[in-house]
Every structure is written in structure tokens, then in C-alpha cells.
Fold each of these.
Amino acid sequence: MYASREDIGYDFGDDSKVGSKPIKPNPNIDGGWAWMIVLSSFLVHILIMGSQMALGVLNMEWIEEFNQSRGLTAWVSSLSMGITLIVGPFIGLFISMCGCRKTAIIGGILNALGWILSAYASNVHYLFLTFGVTAGVGSGMVYLPAVVMVGQYFQKRRALAQGLSTTGTGFGAFLMTALLKYLCTEFGWRNAMFIQGAISLNLCVCGALMRPLSPKDLSEKYVVRSNSEDNQAKGLSHSAETIKSNGVLSEEPDKKEETTNEEVLDGVQHIETGGKSRSGRNMYGLRILKTVSQLTVTVRKGFAMWYSSYFGAASLFTNRVFVAFIIWALFAYSSFVIPFIHLPEIVKQYNLSNQDNIFPLTSIIAIVHIFGKVILGIISDLPCISTWNVFLMANFTLVTCILTLPLMQTYIGLAVVCALIGFSSGYFSLMPVVTEDLVGTKHLANAYGIIICANGISALLGPPFAGWIYDITHKYDFSFYISGLLYMVGIIFLLIQPFIQKKQPREKSTEEAQV
């Protein structure tokens, strides 16, 4: 029941005409430089997501330094983690205008600046601005391009590539926790943040590795994917007219706009050529005019693509399956975060602290999570396996574990459930793959930006909501039950929307036949 774009009768118009001539694949697709992109994304996950998972070390230092409540101080790390994801749609605009490489390099500088400025913090509110906002926005500007570039460079091994790159989060959690503890002990937390800011400049190197593919390579990659998807969907009776009726982004306005832009630049080029006989000062002015014109064209084209993806006649939101995916994302991430928050208290409640100190349950989740991403990625890339089905099965396993975890009262029982939570949550590596299958490579940056924005809202509001439930009920069980039920609602949306989307074109075709 895999819901690809063909299955749901939806397309975004990033088609290239499929000819009869064989297409020579780019050696960098699924190989060559593609693995450098995986390495770059892996390092980004270590430096950004790993550092955010290790912020508990700095949180303790901030509480002692500023003598503020734990709730207020915790908002510093929550803001940083939440903003990294919430700014996704706006980072999509930057990618449309500047490309992934430039966006990532600028984000690396901004992230490092946030760490360095935070070393001079005089109060918690100062950290809200420097670390929560500045470093958070910078992290978002690197994180989204790192995910998008892997999706662009891989066709046959997309799930495995995403799985390998996102394992950097687990490795980073261990490495950055140890590093920050050492730096805080040896140099103090202020110098530790300053040093971490210098280390974060390596994000610029990761961004420099994100060499963009040419439009020809992207079109060839899409043609190969279209051919494979067509072979899998021979049994479907969706006609071209039906697919177009569901909202295709027209290519004609883009071509007209490109023609107009070329005429403007040609005019400037003509003026510049004719002005060679003039003074050097006029030539300098013409070069500035040409540069400004090119920049204006790039900005206009990028903004037009970003605007059409969100607000155009065939925007991302006309895809009902994608909208259901957004609803799912609003509930999913908090269900993964809540166990990390409440597990220590549950262990204390059941008098299991001695066993947990030997091998913490949160460490079990983190370790198995790494293997889950890779194994689920390998399974999803098998030709006989549907990525969508693997994604749904992992979600069902995770929500079942969330609902049953409060029922476990022994360390062995909790350890088994935590291991299943860690493994099933490896579906995070499949999210970019599923998103790309729904909307296509061309719209991956904007679409995935919306998904991680929904995840950011979930991460930002989920833990406080769980704490509020505990304040009312004085039990941790209800936090798991309520979050699990909300998570189940999101999964149900994912299940029913593909069938509704399939049914509508047939009904419309019947009505047209009657007319």
C-alpha cells in the first residue's frame, strides 16, 4: 500500500520528457561524490543534533551560574532544538534562492557565532537570543541542506544513505556529551562554549562539500525514478489527464519567466559590450548593474518556486497525503522525546536506580536507535519491500511501545520496551525518503522544511504538555497514554488519506464520462 505520487494521482510537474534513448547515468548518483555528501551530512548530524542532545551538561552549568529555575533555564535548549526545526520552511526559501551549499556555509557561520556570543552571557534571557535563536537558526540552515543533498544524490540507496547520515545524531550524542563534560571541567562552561563555537566552524567545511548537481543530472535522476515507478504501477489505471487534474505546476510560466530574465541579462550584456569603447568608470557601473540583475533574477526565481510550493494553485497543501503527513509529524516527535524526559523518574518510582546506573535505559534507546536507522534503511532499499510499509510498521511498533511502557515495572521489561523504541524510531531516516516520494526531488527542500517544522513544534510543546499532565494527575502514566493516543491519530491519518486520494480521481472520471 505504498503511496507514491503515481499511486495517489498527484504530481508537481518536475517531469522531464521521457524519451526512448537510453540515458547514461551520472557516476555521482548512488556513487562517487554521493558518499562524500553522506559523510558531510553525517558530520552535520554530529555537530548539530549531537550537540543539542548533549545540552544537559550545559544546562546544569547555567542553573548554577544564573540561579534561575529549572523550567526557565530549560527553555534555552528547548528554543535551540525547536527553532532548528521550526525555521525549515524559511530555510527552504534560502535553498531555492542560494542553493544548499551557500545556505549551509552561512548557517555554519551563524551557528558558530551563536555559540561564541553565548560564552559572554550575563543572564538566561541573553542565552535565549544568542543560543536559542542565533545558534538555532544557524543549525536549521545547515541541517535541512544536509538532508536534501543526500536525497538529490541517491536513487537506489536513498534509505540506506539517509540512515547512515542520520546515525551521526547517536554518535554525536555520545561524543559531544563527553567533549562538553571535559571542556567544562577543564576550562569552565564559558570557554567550553567558545571552543565549541570554533569547532562548529567545521559546518562551513561540510557545506562546501555539498557540490550541487546540474539540472541535467537532476532531470536524468527523475527520469530513472519515473521509469521504475511506472513499472511498479502498471496495474494502476490513472490516466495522464487524471494526474494533471490533481494539480500540476505548469512549466510554461517558468519558461516565459526564464525567457524574460535572459532578455534582461542579454540587454545588459549588449550594453556592456557596446560600452567597451567608453570610459572604465562606465564599464564598472555596467558590471555592477549586471551583477545586480543576475542577483535579482535568482531571488525572483527562488521566491517564485518557494511561493508556488506553499501558496500556488498546485501547492504542496493540495496533496492530501502530504497534509496527513504534516498532521502525523505534529504528534510523532513528542512521543519519542517524552520517554527521555520521564524515564529517570519512572526508574526512581520503581526503585530501579541501581540497575539503571549500570546501564541507563536512555542509553539503550540511543544505541539501538543507531542500528535501527541503518537496518530499516537497508530493508527499505530492497526491491521487493515498500518504504511506505516499513515506515508504517515502524510507527505502529513505536506507538505500541509508548502505550505499554508505563505497564512495565521491572528493569528487564523496561529495557526490552526501550530497545524496541530505539529500533522503531529509526524510521526518522525514512522521513526524507517518504517525503521525496510524495512530492518529488524538486520540491523536497520546501516539503521537508514543513515536516521538520511540524516536528519542531512537537518537540517544543510536547515536553511542557507532558509536565502539565503530570501536574494535574500526579502520574507519569497519563503522559505516555495521551501522547500515544495522539500519535495513533496521526498514523490513522496516514492510513486513510491514500485511499481517499485514490478514490477521488475515479469519481471525477465517472462524472466527466457522464457529461
Amino acid sequence: QICNQHNAEAPNLEQAFHRMAQTEPNLDHDVSWFLLPSYWAKMVVALISFLCFANSYDGEFVFDDSEAIINNKDLRAETPLGDLWHHDFWGSKLSSNTSHKSYRPLTVLTFRINYLFAGGFYPVGFHVINIILHCTVSVLMVDVFSILLGGLQFSNKGRRLNLAPKTSLLAALLFAVHPVHTECVAGIVGRADLLCALFFLLSFLGYCKAFRENKEGHNFSIFWVLVSVILGAIAMLCKEQGITILGLNAVFDALVINRLNVLELIQKLRHKDKSLENAGLLRKGLLFRITLLMSGGASILYIRWRIMGTGPPAFTEVDNPASFADSLFVRAINYNYYYSLNAWLLLCPWWLCFDWSMGCIPLIKSVSDWRIIALAALWFCLIGLICQALCSEDSHKRRILTLGLGFLIIPFLPASNLFFRVGFVIAERVIYLPSIGYCILFTYGFSLLSKQAKKKKILTVAVLGILLINVMRCALRSSQWRSEEQLFRSALSVCPLNAKVHYNVGKNLADKGNQSAAIKYYREAVRLNPKYVHAMNNLGNILKERNELQEAEELLSLAVQIQPDFAAAWMNLGIVQNSLRRFEEAEQSYWTAIKHRKKYPDCYYNLGRLYADLNRHIDALNAWRNATVLKPEHSLAWNNMIILLDNTGNLAQAEAVGREALELIPNDHSLMFSLANVLGKSQKYKESEALFLKAIKANPNAASYHGNLAVLYHRWGNLDLAKKHYEVSLKLDPMAPGTKENYNLLRRKLEQLQKKGG
């Protein structure tokens, strides 16, 4: 056992290497790389990982951030903390049929803390935490890679020795600057992967601490094994992949702590050899520890299953087309093609996209498809690595290759479609943890090349070049994640066949008021995916606003035909039918929307407008009242109630409704204006004046506010003030209806008064 002092100084490391070399080869021996003390190595990794993603700190909320953060009621203080444990990542009840069953309460809790400390939805704080988390994870990687590449050795004082300081630094740098991590860091929703990775690594390091007093597996700390299980559970409560660390800890225990030779074990089992204990399987403590890990994992999964319920998540064919294929062959071949694309993203992370669904990757339907080559290349490499990991006579190579493959494959299993259907084709964020395995394999390959190379410096320069290119790619990709416009447009060249990319570009343009450009992208989205009901709905809305009602009706009718429970499309179809004066059909469409979405205040509001047009005043008032019950801050519904009651002479009721509305929405100037009109008609001039002035203060450029205040002064007898506000109103809107006539009447009256006074 190595009893050296902690590797604070380079000479101590060299002594440790010398002693280690007596038992097995050391990766650092032939590698031409930087040798830094542990503290400085971690500082370098932290600094470079920060530089990669620093420019994302002032980015906006983009893509999934809207649903997971802005529209997630679980972030708000009024939502009880207990609800986080019964809701999914998006704030929906886990028992709901529409829930994606993504159970990540601890991640949502960090979002809530961000929101409370910032005092609202300010993205800077969210982004800064993500950057800090990635830097922390990257720093921890130095320790993790030193164990995975150099082995687990402790000094007499129980301090862990870093036996591979050069290669662990290289592997940590590769991880820190990998461009595929941009989605996790620059996209706030990626916090789930960052937190999961943090507790994943802490669980692994905790498990390693169990062997500080280890003598060939005989002595270990049960406390640290249990801590590792608990940290694994916390990782899973951040994201589902976290549970896989328990399996990796078991693999590490068998290979590194107990030095298990898998091939030898298989041969002994085949020949029913009784000396299995010598093979390491029954060595004291291993089975007990694996039992603890398996029991802990099973308990965690059972508790999660009980909380989530038994229903599978609801995904559609556009989310994951291969999983809906009837043929087992088509499913299997496409899943394997997806795996090869994930591997390619690790090897060459140049073509990155925020979304890979909706036709971005067409299905492989026959063996004549040239893309089969990618599958063959993937399995050729994997089988070669597995054979080396199992059959090599070099125990050091077996250990590193097996650990590399383990960290590459095992964390990816929850996203592999093997156990359950997932809601994506490819998701760059799920490669965050598997990239650990890639970094191990890359670094080991670099060490083998260094051993053979005569000019090691050229190899080192090449690796430095790769790191530099990755840093630049991270910075570029981070800048694309700063705004939705840049993010969505960056995907057009990567996934031109992805209907969702065109839809999102169109939506972003529509939100900015560029309807003409938005129509172009919505039409392309519908062309690429003729069943894309959301694109049809949005395109129909724009056409409705442009008074192209016939095409709008056709699109919305097709949308509800494809998806009969699409409540928003039913409501919008009702609005178009109302505009076409087909009132009975419009009413039926509104009620169909409400049938599919019981709590739909906007639909009740539009239904109320229909009834008002038909002079069904009681029905209109009831519809608007339902809208305000479901959404108390629904200003338009309150306003329409006040105006309808005012116009029908129910001033007392209009006043009561207006006061009720202002109690709920005290700063709404349109409500102040409507109630001021009612009070003026009721001759409550002083109170009416106060509300008019308050409304004008909030919105000083509203001509009607000044015009109606002038009418109030006119009635009240304050003619000079009336004249002043008439003039302001006409200056703001010279064509204001009735204002010019009233102003002329006032002027004549003032002239008459002046003549009488003269």
C-alpha cells in the first residue's frame, strides 16, 4: 500500500508513481501533458469551464424555460411547498393523464429559491447558478478521473492519492469544454442535469471514501456506503438518470476494489469451478455492499413508483417516431441509429440543435438505407472495446476500458428507449453524464498514442487544438442560447426538415409583430408535418387577424379534426365563425372548447362577446362572470360586464361590479375609466373625477380618457377644465368621435357666457 504524503508537491507525486509502477502501469508515464498540483489543476478547470459559458449569464428565458419556469406555478410563494412532491417538472399533477412523469422536485425547488431571491422572473440569477454548477461539476471531475484513471489509493493518514494528475487534468478539461454541454448550462432547464451530475459525482466520491481503511476489500465503512445511496437518491430527485450511479458504484467496487476479472469469472462459472472466491466474487464484503446498493436502489425506485402512479407518460408520435413504429425491426434499427448519432455528437459536437424531433431524423425503414453504415461503425467500435475490456491480459487496460464503457453506457440507459418510451429522438442534455465515459476513453486513447508516438509534442499540440476549438464552439453555442431568435434560427441549418424548428421561428417572429414572415415559417411547418395542429392553430390566428377568414376557418377545422380535444383550436374556430356571423356554429365551438378544458376563462370571455352581439345580455354577463371566477385578473371580462350594465342602464350594478374589479386589480387604468364613466352618470362627480385623473396618470396618451373627463367637467359645470381636456383629447386624436361636437358646444356656451358677462 502506498503510504506517501498527500500530493501537494510534484516530487511526492513522482515517488507515488514509482511505487505504483511496481503493481501496474501508470497512464501518466508516457503522456506529455501539464503536471500541476491538485489545487491549481482544479483552478484551471474551473476558470476554463467558466470562460466557455460565461457569455450565457445575461441570456433570456428560452424554449422549455417558459413552461418549466415562467408558467410553472410551483415556483410562486403562494403554492405550498408540499405540492412540489406531487407535481412533475412542469408543474402538472403526476396523476394527470397529460403529465410527462418527469419527477424532479429538488430541481424545481432550486428554481423556486432563485425566483424568491430575485423577486421575480429575472433570468440572470438562474443563468449564474447554472454556470456555477457546471464549474463545480467540472472541478469534481478532477478527483473522479484521478480515481477512474489512476486507481484508488490512500496514504497512511487516510488521504486519497492522485496517481494520474496529468491524465485526470486532461479528462476534466475535455469534460469542462465539451460543446454538447451547452444546452445544460445555457438552457436554464438543463439545471436538472447539472444538479443530477453534482450529486451523482458526490455519491461516487462518497462510495470511494468507504475504503479509506481498506485492505483488499475486507474493511470498509457502511456509513459511507449508505451516504452514497442517499446521494444517489438525491441525484434521482434532480433527474431520473441519477439512480444509475448505484450500478456504477457496484461496477467500480467489483473492478477496482476487488479487482474482479470478468472473463475469468465467466470461465470458472462455465466450468463450475469451486474456487470462485479466488476470482473475487465472494470476497468478504463485496456481495454485502452490492446488496446494500441494490436494496437502496430498489427502495428508491419503489417510492418513486408509488408517488408517480403506474400510468406511463403521455408522448405523441412526433416526439419519438421510432417508438410508434409497428415493426420491431424498424424500432430496433432506428434506436441503434439514434445511439450512433449520440456517439457522433460526443466525437464531433459541431451540429447541435435545441430539438431533434418532428422529421429532423427520418426513419430508417429498410436495410438499403445508407445510414445503416453508422450502426455498423458504432457496433464495430463497441464490440472491439468490449472485447478488449474483457479479454485483454493487461488488467490496467481491462479496468479503464470497462469503467469508460460503464460510465458511457449505464447513465444513458434511461434515455435509450429499452425500458420505456422517452419523449425525444435525441436530447443533447442527456449526454452530460455519459460524456464522462467518453472523456475516459479519449484520454486512454491519447495515452496509448503517446506511448507509441516519437514526437509527443505534436500529439499534445493536437489535443490542445481540440480543446481550443471546443472552447470557441462552446462560446459560440452559448451566445446562440441567449435568445430564442438566435437559438431557433441556428437550428434551421442543422435540422431543416424539423417542423418544430420552423414553428418556433414563426412563433418568435409573430411575438415580435412580424406576421408576414411568421406566416412563411408556419406554412413550412405545416408542409413538413401536415398533422402539426399547433402550427395550424397559430397560422389560423394570424390569418384571422388579417381578416383572411376563409383560410383561417379551413386550417382550424382541420386542426380540430386531427385532434378533437384541442381546446384552443376550438375556441379560435369559434372566433372565426363569429366573425363570419355564423353564430350558432360559433357557440357550439366555444362549448366544445370548454368541454375539453373545463377551466378556460378566455373561452368564456369570447362566449360572452358572442352573447352580447346577439343581445343575450344575461347569458353574456354569466359567461363573463365565469371568466372572472376562473381568472380573477381577467380585466377584459370585468370591463365588458361594467360596460354592458352601464349601456343597459343598470348603473348601481355596474358600479358594484366596477368596485369589485378594482379591489382585485387596483392598478388597471381601463377599469378605473369604465367605473369613472358609471359614477359620472350617477352624478358622483368628485369620485368620478378622482378615478379619471388616476387613469390618465397611468395612461396619459389615451384620448378617450381626456375626452370623457371633459364631458364630466362639462356636466359638472367646470367649463374651463372641460375646455382644457377637450383640447388635449383632440390633440391626441383629432378624429375622436363626439369630442369635436362636444368641444364646439362648450365653446359656444363659453362665448354666450362671455357676452352676458360683457
